[in-house]
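If your schedule permits, I should be very grateful for your opinion on a structural question. I would ask you to consider whether the tokens describe a fold that such a sequence might reasonably adopt. Thank you for your consideration; the sequence and its tokens are set out here.
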Amino acid sequence: MRILLIEDEKDLAEALHTGLTAEGYIVDIANDGHEGLWMARTGDYALIVLDLMLPGLSGYRVCAQLRREEITTLILVLTAKDGEYDQAEALDTGADDYLVKPFSYVVLVAWLRALLRRSSSAAPLILTVGDLTVDPASRTCRRAGSRVELSPRELAILEVLARRPGQAVSKAELLHHAWPGEAVDPNLVEARVSSLRRKIDTVFRRQSLQTVRGAGYRLVDDREQRA
């Protein structure tokens, strides 16, 4: 599950990045309104956490512009502006909910889960490739109905592949999604893919997670190959 955090307080942004990553989310950070708007337009996010008082372009304007462009990504406003008119304006410009700073981290995480549940109940998004399913909202995976326990990194890699079934996805792209903003050894992708393959394929005697020489990896429906 991918989240965009648009927050100019860098210490807070890094703290939230660390905490939410530990919860299993993939978190990208933008530190000003223009960058946040661009990332929200171009990224595949389940939810945006948006500050209102941003350099360059205010959170109000970011929110309003996204809704004008019919981008329906969930938006949780996180701000020190606690007046009733501030809250009303944020909601009127298209925000889905509003949380005032200072806030409890535990409450923030619960708020995110509630928003995502609300969204998934209205429009369920289950990624399916053959008899393999990935539920980004609950961060669960199943093969032929059996639950498969995955680490947050493995789940992030699988989600990217499941969103583009049959297409080769490069190591660089998988690094960007599973280790956002981190300088890590590309060999980590191979290690995580190997572990993921054992869990979703080897145990079930399947071959759905395939290596595409020189291009990366792809996820396919391999049931016809077994027939």
